[in-house]
Amino acid sequence: MPEAELRCRDDVYEKIDKFLSGSCNDFYVEAHRQRFLKEMLDVSGPNVLSRYIVLLESGVKGNRDGW
Question: 23-60 burial, b if ≥16 CB within 10 A, otherwise e?
Answer without folding.
Answer: eeeeeeeeeeeeeeeeeeeeeeeeeeeeeeeeeeeeee
